[in-house]
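We store amino acids, tokens; thus:
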Amino acid sequence: MQHFEESIYNLIVETSTNLPGDVRRAVAKGRALEDRATRSGLALTTIAQNIGMAEHQVSPICQDTGMPTFIIHTPVGVNQIEMKKDIHSAIIRATKNGKLRPNSVDSLTGENSGDNLGAGTPVIHFEQWEEEGIDVRLILKGGGCENKNIQYSLPAELEGLGKAGRDLDGIRKCILHAVYQAQGQGCSAGFIGVGIGGDRTTGYELAKKQLFRKVEDVNTNADLGKLEDYIMENANKLGIGTMGFGGEVTLLGCKIGVMNRLPASFFVSVAYNCWAFRRQGILVHPATGDIKEWLYESGTGISVEGEQAPQPVAEPVGIAAADRAASGIVPEDATIPAAPAIVSGTGEAASEPAVPGHGAASEPTAAASTGSGGSREVRLSTPISEEDIRSLRVGDVVILSGEMHTGRDALHKYLMDHDTPVDLNGAVIYHCGPVMLKDDEGWHVKAAGPTTSIREEPYQGDIIKKFGIRAVIGKGGMGPKTLKALGEHGGVYLNAIGGAAQYYAECIKKVNAVDFMEFGIPEAMWHLQVEGFAAIVTMDAHGNSLHADVEKDSAAKLAQFREPVFK
């Protein structure tokens, strides 16, 4: 199969950069249900723009390209050893070309392999079948949503829902609780795969396999079909919303599978996937390795603006950038005005709304305007003063210009006991592990959305105080220790839109420098010059946290589903 490696490479590129048609329609349905003037509406519009940018630029939709997971069905006699070698070669090539972020990390040493190969990575499941072709399916599921996977052992007592027994109603409670516990940390609005039964390992495998089903399919098991419909209707009543901002749309898809179990065990396993639902598949000719058919509808030409009738599965329109011009984004939604008017440093209203990546040059002081409903948009330049920070409130949209610094798990742990290579007084830390490429001109940012911030909760408050940091950017919010530090020191947490890796990469104008490359590209400390970088204040210096408020409100709403439904 001399063309198999090339076919796998094309599959990886398509999966990473072009969201499938069924997923786009699900996003469009979500947008139709959400008021676009709200925080969640703003987030969905950002998501819509990012989908089009990724396709057009042939760059990763999200900077976290996850753990590449392949499920492959082969006819008897196909050499799986050679196939695996070709898959590894395609993975290395895709990583080198910036289609995948180097994500394979030694669990003991913390060393990043740099090429996405290592013990257990990528994940490849081979199964034989009696068909003639080779069926290859790939999912790229990022770490943020992977961390929100959850498994229940029934019977169990669930927060807000009470006792969940070993029956369909107990399963119902588990699934609702799984959506609740994810909040916005898994980049809602999300998709879930549910596995009922099996053991702890096969239950999770079954759950993840459900994510390979098409969004618009119908469960062949009538009882599970009814449960899927119930979950889709009622999970969206929890009010968690896109990014956990509160709103009407929390879940975009639910697929449930079942297998036999041991008498002593009853597991309900839930695989949570973010809105950037990246999975694709190909049918490969067993003799040549050429692609015979794409297994999921291409996203090219599918708008995320409104509902469209399902179209037949078609081969994606090429891999080259020239073939990406037919974006699925409606022109009027190509930019996101955060407020109706922007006040410049001179006090004059700007004629155009501020858009990430298209903002004015940095200004020496803060400038703000108030839109309808009391929402504000505030322009700030780094370094930021305590006075400017304490003037901010939850709900404000902040447009940043100047230098910011990325920092994730390895850096936060390091800084607890060491000094920083740059002055962070008044600085902005961005929880981000970008996709980077280097050429003769230096480093270039290929994708740069936020990572889930709650992982840094053990460190963040201490680091804010130690170094004088004024703003932390991430997604999903942080906990009480960080909130206390924001109040004591004068800081804010800014929620960027998870998964919007192209949207934010557009705001980064220059890579000033990098430190700690020994941590690997995602964990290094990148010093980035940005213009017009927009994010929403969700935790302020006055003890307010949108995340805590939404969680409290959704917990109360969860309790309304306590009574039995499936008897």
Summary: The CA atoms of residues 219 and 226 lie 9 Å apart.
